[in-house]
Structure formats: structure tokens, C-alpha cells
Amino acid sequence: xxxxxxxxxxxxxxxxxxxxxxxxxxxxxxxxxxxxxxxxxxxxxxxxxxxxxxxxxxxxxxxxxxxxxxxxxxxxxxxxxxxxxxxxxxxxxxxxxxxxxxxxxxxxxxxxxxxxxxxxxxxxxxxxxxxxxxxxxxxxxxxxxxxxxxxxxxxxxxxxxxxxxxxxxxxxxxxxxxxxxxxxxxxxxxxxxxxxxxxxxxxxxxxxxxxxxxxxxxxxxxxxxxxxxxxxxxxxxxxxxxxxxxxxxxxxxxxxxxxxxxxxxxxxxxxxxxxxxxxxxxxxxxxxxxxxxxxxxxxxxxxxxxxxxxxxxxxxxxxxxxxxxxxxxxxx
Length: 332
Known about the structure:
Rossmann fold; globular
């Protein structure tokens, strides 16, 4: 049987992506493409619980939080899936799918455990020839032999969360100023612009009385958020918001400033303008991980050094240039 016939005879599809928030945002277009191809498919996601708010959307029928279910084996034992997609596989995930006899298992051809996949994808993601969202869709395209452009998937936020954020904005922004969010951390997934440069940017922007700047972050961002909020017209929301609340706050904002991180992709999916910073090394570059679906401006160092190597010196990014683009995007 041809693979397209095997796929078209399937009804239960699972996508396994158990890493970070940004990875999930860029994987959800695969779920959308599957449902648009056949609305009768039941599309499930296996993810970590940090991503749960993103999974409440129009294109995911069921989701399983692997860290709350004592591992993926329990998911595969207790559910009958016909097809499993592995955009960024791990050994235990691939082996469990094989062991539990999921009929069609789709994953990279370039892992030592690729023997567990029976439809292999010959993409080297580390060379970053495509955007991450395109890499994910290429898994599906390899079956149906047609091109799909990645389309955003917007999470559904509860009315209670919406009310919470409306109240927060009323509290801190009673005069209905323009608002921007600065989210300084990237949790080590990329190289960041120096905090001193973000601090200088905020100092310059804080002179605009008609602008309110929210500083957001979690975990190791505490000291950074505290430093950045020592400026006029700033509000420090470090660890005060759930992911759902942050999503709603982003939706109500005029601009997001961030490094390469999941929050960036959430904003892009909702078409909120973003200003962001990326190194040039292909595996971390904006070509692979840049924002989609929105008005954006990406700052990177000059790409090539005198030695011919990729230039990842984020300190070389000009605050003057960033400031000028920020006020243009904010229409000041």
C-alpha cells in the first residue's frame, strides 16, 4: 500500500513534541494543516504541561501531558493511534511508538534510533535550510506530495483570564496609553542582546509619557526584570502572570521586544508587531527561528567577521538603531 493510501485510511493522528513553548507554537501549524486536509481526522498532541494553554485551540482534538502521565509509554499503551509524527524525536518516544505498534511512524532519518520510524524524513535541521515551521510541515508534505504554507494557530483564552488582564491593564494603564512588553530572557535557547542595551533602550523610551512598558519574565529572569523596571513608566510583572495571562496581555499590546524565545512566536501568531534579536549561526538564526505571520524587525550582528566565520557578537547591535525602529513601530 502506498503511504498516501495508508495515511488516508487513518483517523487517529498524534504529534509528539515535548520541548519548549516556541517549538510548540511552530509545530501547531502541522496540526492545522492536518485538520484542513481532512476535518474528520482526530488530531492529538503529546506535550509537556508548560504548553497546555497553547493546546486549547481549534485544531487539536485531544492532548496528553507526558510529564503528568509518567512518560509517553502510558500514552501509547492506552490509545490507539494510526499515525505518529515526531518533529523533534527522542529515543524513548520513538522506541515506545515502535514497541506499541503504531502503524505509521514519521521521523528523522538521521538519528541512531531512526530504525524505529517507517517513514523517514531526509532533512538536516541543523543546517537551517528552512524555517522550523516549514520543517514541521515538510513531514506532512512528504506524504501528500504538495506544498503547505505554515498558518498560525491562536490559543483560546478563557473569559476569566481575559477579565484578569483587563483589570490589570485598567489598574496600571487607566489613561489608555500605548503599551509594549519587554521579555528579556530566552532560557538559553539562543544568544541574547546584552541587558545593558535593553536597559538603555528602556531609558530612552520611558521619556514618552504616552507609553507604558511591561517587563515580563520567569525563573532566572528575576534580577534582569528588576533592573529593567528601575525606569520611569515601567511595570515589573516578573512571575506574576500565568502563560494564559501573558498571552492575553500580549494580545492587548502594541509591540513586543524579545530575544529568540517562545513569547516571540506567541506574539507573531496573534499578529502583534515584534522587535527581536538573533545571532547569525544557522542553527540559531532568524532564518530557522524568526517570527512569522506579523510585522517584525529583526536585529542581528553584521553576518560575517573578517575571518569569514559567522558573527554572533550581540553587543555590536546598535541601541540607536533599535530605538529608532521601536518609535517608528509605536508610531511616535
